[in-house]
Specification:
The protein is mostly beta strands. The protein has a single domain, classed as Beta Barrel (Porin), CATH 2.40.160. 5% of the residues lie in helices and 61% in strands. A twelve-stranded antiparallel beta barrel has the order 1-4-7-9-10-11-12-15-16-19-20-22. A four-stranded antiparallel beta sheet has the order 13-14-17-18, with no helix packed on it. Strands 3-2-21 form a three-stranded antiparallel beta sheet, with helices on one face. It starts with a helix and ends with a strand. Mean pLDDT is 90; it is low at 1-25.
C-alpha cells in the first residue's frame, strides 16, 4: 500500500525536486554560507546558479524501494538582489527565476521536462545588524508564483501549479577570529494544486533547519561545511493522507573565492545523510557566480 502511494506521488515529487533545491530531501530554499551577512544599501547582486543532482535510491517510510529509477536534475537560477535602507533597517528585495531540465529513467521508460519553473519574489529584512561584531539577524519571505511550465498529463513538471510562501529566520555571527556560524530556520506554507493528476493536491507545512560553519582564509576566500534537515510536508491527494512526511537530511561542503573584488565563484558538493521518504541524493554539484554592482 505504501509503495502504491509512493508511485502515485511521483509526479508531484518530481515537480518539487525541480525547484531551487530538492525539497524532498532538503530545504525549500537552500541558503549558502554568508547569505545572511547584509551588504550596504545601494549594492546590487546578479547571481547565476547551476545545480546538478543524481538520485538512484527511493525511500518509503525509511525503507529502500528498489524500483529501478534514476532521477537527474540540471537546474539553473537567475537571481537579482538589491540592497536598500528602510527606516534604518537593511533590506534586499529580490527575484529568483529557475530554469533547466529534469529527467527520470525507470524500467517502464523515460520522461523528462525542460523550461522555466515558478519564479520567487520577496526579500530579507535585517532586524539586527552589528557592523562592529559582524553579527546579524534577518527574516525572509519569498512567494513562489505558479507561472512555470505545468501540465498534469506530464510525468514531470518544472512548475508546481500552486502558490507557496517560504519564510526563514537566520542569525549569523563570528565564533572565532577566522570562523563564522550561520543558523537558519525555515517554514513553508503550500497552496492547493487543484489540477493534479489524481484530483487535488494539498500539503502540510514544511519546516527545517540549515547550518553553515565557515573557515575564513582571508576576506576573499572561505571553506564551509553545511547541514540541512527538514520535517513535515505530508501530502493529501483528494483528501487522502499519503503518509509521506519528511525527516530528511543532507550535508554539503562549499568553497568560495573572490577572483576580483566584484566577482565571486562558489563550488559545492553534497549528499543525502538520511531520507525517510523520497529520493536520496547520490551526488549534488553546485556552481554559483556572483557579480557585485
Amino acid at each position: 500500500m505504501m509503495i502504491c502511494k509512493h508511485k502515485l506521488l511521483l509526479r508531484t515529487s518530481l515537480a518539487f525536486m525541480a525547484s531551487y533545491s530538492l525539497s524532498t530531501s532538503a530545504a525549500q530554499v537552500a541558503t549558502d554560507p554568508g547569505d545572511y551577512s547584509p551588504l550596504p544599501a545601494g549594492i546590487d547582486l546578479g547571481i547565476l546558479y547551476y545545480q546538478h543532482t543524481t538520485h538512484n535510491d527511493v525511500y518509503v517510510d525509511n525503507d529502500l524501494v528498489d524500483e529501478g529509477m534514476k532521477l537527474t536534475t540540471d537546474i539553473g537560477l537567475l537571481r537579482w538582489v538589491h540592497y536598500i535602507d528602510v527606516g534604518g533597517f537593511i533590506a534586499d528585495p529580490q527575484i529568483i527565476i529557475p530554469f533547466g531540465n529534469v529527467s527520470l529513467d525507470t524500467t517502464a521508460g523515460e520522461a523528462d521536462a525542460s523550461g522555466i519553473g515558478d519564479p520567487m519574489v520577496g526579500g530579507t529584512v535585517w532586524l539586527y545588524n552589528n557592523a562592529d561584531t559582524k553579527a546579524a539577524f534577518g527574516v525572509t519571505a519569498l512567494l513562489s508564483v505558479p507561472v512555470g511550465h505545468y501540465n498534469k498529463k506530464d510525468a514531470i513538471n518544472l512548475g508546481e501549479n500552486r502558490w507557496k510562501l517560504i519564510t526563514q529566520a537566520a542569525y549569523t555571527t563570528p565564533i572565532a577570529s577566522s570562523y563564522s556560524l550561520d543558523l537558519i530556520g525555515e517554514y513553508t506554507i503550500f497552496g492547493e494544486n487543484d489540477d493534479f493528476v489524481a484530483g487535488s493536491l494539498k500539503q502540510d507545512p514544511q519546516y527545517g533547519v540549515q547550518t553553515h560553519i565557515s573557515k575564513h582564509f582571508s576576506e576573499r576566500s572561505r571553506l564551509s561545511l553545511s547541514y540541512f534537515h527538514d520535517f513535515g510536508a505530508e501530502t493529501q491527494i483528494s483528501g487522502t493522507d499519503q503518509d509521506n512526511e519528511l525527516n530528511n537530511s543532507r550535508w554539503q561542503v562549499s568553497y568560495s573565492h573572490f577572483v576580483r573584488p566584484d566577482l565571486q565563484l562558489m563550488l559545492q558538493y553534497g549528499q543525502s545523510i538520511r531520507v525517510k521518504n523520497g529520493f536520496a541524493e547520490g551526488d549534488r554539484v553546485n556552481l554559483r557566480l556572483v557579480k557585485v554592482f
